[in-house]
Design goal:
With 406 residues, the protein is α/β, with parallel strands linked by helices. The chain folds into 2 domains: 256 residues, Crotonobetainyl-coa:carnitine coa-transferase, domain 1 (Rossmann fold), CATH 3.40.50.10540; 90 residues, 2-Layer Sandwich (formyl-coa transferase, domain 3), CATH 3.30.1540. The chain is built from 18 helices and 14 strands. The strands form 4 sheets. Strands 6-3-2-7-8-9 form a 6-stranded parallel beta sheet. A 3-stranded mixed beta sheet has the order 1-13-14. Strand 10 and strand 11 form a beta hairpin.
Length: 406
């Protein structure tokens, strides 16, 4: 059974926070959606006619963008041309009613349109402004265009992916964009805490570089080079810091990911596979020794696992309390009993597709339940309601629509 999206009374810990999302594609919208998932009231702004470029990225169903439906879920959506004076005036009226502005235009673009920090905070002095860009608001690359593959390549991440000695490898998903969005959302929450504790404080800008977010995620990469002079490169599926640690083929043509990352796990792993003699083998006596001799131990482990089916391997490793994972695809996720029990995939109402299923909100809260209330809006879906709430008459809304302002 797939869970219904919204438990009764679900509001989330950020209920009451109002966020204006004028960003595009993934990183900025992802940050705003993290806030929306936790209960914030988020208004997504798109260009009239064309909308956000994410709408044109695959996959689609009958012309409806599926990626969009998740990245911009839990938001209301309007259209507004920020480049035009009338559009800027309407933006100002919206800014006055919101706590946070999220943008990811190339550095300086909004200033060129007259949407400066000074102008924004004349309207709303406590406005928090999250700026997510590839390289940040300063430095020689600040005006450079970018996309996820650029940020991943320049952070050192791509060089760590791929087969040993082979071509660096990009993943099949632009992982740096949601990582940048997560760092941006954390920045917003930190600033809101500061403002909460200082009622007289002026809101500040948050400069979030997606490339720097990727660099930070790689944790030991910089200190390893600084202290050891080591440049870490690709090693395929093999773990570079624990052995055995790899993806292994089972007798029934399936795959299992295993990492014996501590000595106790290694010893239990050996007992599970009937390889107790490895525990006292001088080559494998501790993790540093095993990492040095990873090829030798991998041959032994691979051979032992290749004689077992995935179910047989699972039973042995579970009996000896050794963590492992089969390699899942999306269909496996939908069928897994743990994810079903946790309601990790939820059913969500959508005005274009009827009902869609997507990931639940992460994390969960004991006292302020969170939920996916709606999939990403259709283009301009809430124009009439939002502009009507600003005091515009139906005739004024129609005039703005005809003029291409909304």
């Amino acid at each position: 059974m797939i869970a219904a999206a919204e438990p009764p009374g679900a509001a989330g810990p950020l209920a009451g926070l109002r966020v204006l999302d004028i960003s595009t594609v993934v990183a900025g919208p992802f940050a705003a959606t993290m806030l929306a998932d936790l209960g914030a009231d988020v208004l997504k702004v798109e260009m009239p006619g064309t909308g956000d470029a994410l709408r044109r990225l695959a996959p689609h169903k009958s012309g409806v963008p599926l990626w969009w439906k998740v990245t911009n879920r839990n938001k209301k959506g309007i259209t507004l041309d920020l480049r035009k004076p009338d559009g800027r005036e309407l933006l100002g009226r919206l800014v006055a009613e919101h706590d946070v502005l999220v943008e990811n235009f190339r550095t300086g673009t909004l200033d060129e349109w007259g949407i400066t920090r000074t102008w924004l905070q004349q309207i709303n002095p406590r406005l928090t402004i999250l700026r997510i860009t590839g390289f940040g608001q300063t430095g020689p690359y600040r005006h450079n265009p970018g996309f996820a593959r650029v940020f991943e390549a320049m952070s050192g991440f791509t060089r760590m992916c791929g087969e040993e000695g082979g071509t660096p490898l990009h993943l099949g998903y632009p992982i740096s964009d949601p990582i940048g969005g997560l760092f941006g959302a954390i920045g917003v929450l930190a600033e809101l805490y500061r403002l909460k504790n200082d009622p007289a404080a002026r809101g500040q800008e948050i400069d979030c570089s997606v490339t720097e977010a990727m660099m930070r995620t790689l944790d030991f990469l910089a200190i390893e080079y600084d202290q050891l002079g080591t440049v870490r490169t690709s090693s395929g599926n093999r773990s570079q810091y624990a052995a055995p640690g790899n993806i292994y083929a089972t007798s029934d043509g399936k795959w299992a990911s295993i990492a014996a990352s501590t000595q106790s796990i290694f010893e239990r792993f050996c007992k599970a596979l009937g390889l107790q003699h490895l525990i006292t083998d001088p080559r494998f006596v501790d993790n540093p020794s095993r990492v040095r001799n990873w090829q030798a131990i991998d041959v032994i482990v691979s051979e032992a696992i290749s004689r077992l089916s995935l179910d047989e391997l699972r039973a042995l490793l579970h009996a000896h309390e050794v963590g492992f994972s089969p390699i899942y695809d999306a269909s496996d996720i939908f069928a897994d009993p743990h994810f079903l029990a946790r309601q990790s995939i939820v059913s969500v109402a959508d005005d274009e597709l009827g009902e869609v299923r997507m990931q639940c909100v992460v994390p969960r809260f004991s006292e302020t339940p969170v939920a996916v209330h709606r999939a990403g809006p259709s283009l301009g879906q809430h124009n009439d309601a939002v502009y009507g709430a600003l005091g515009l008459t139906a005739e004024e809304v129609e005039r703005l629509r005809a003029a291409g302002i909304i």
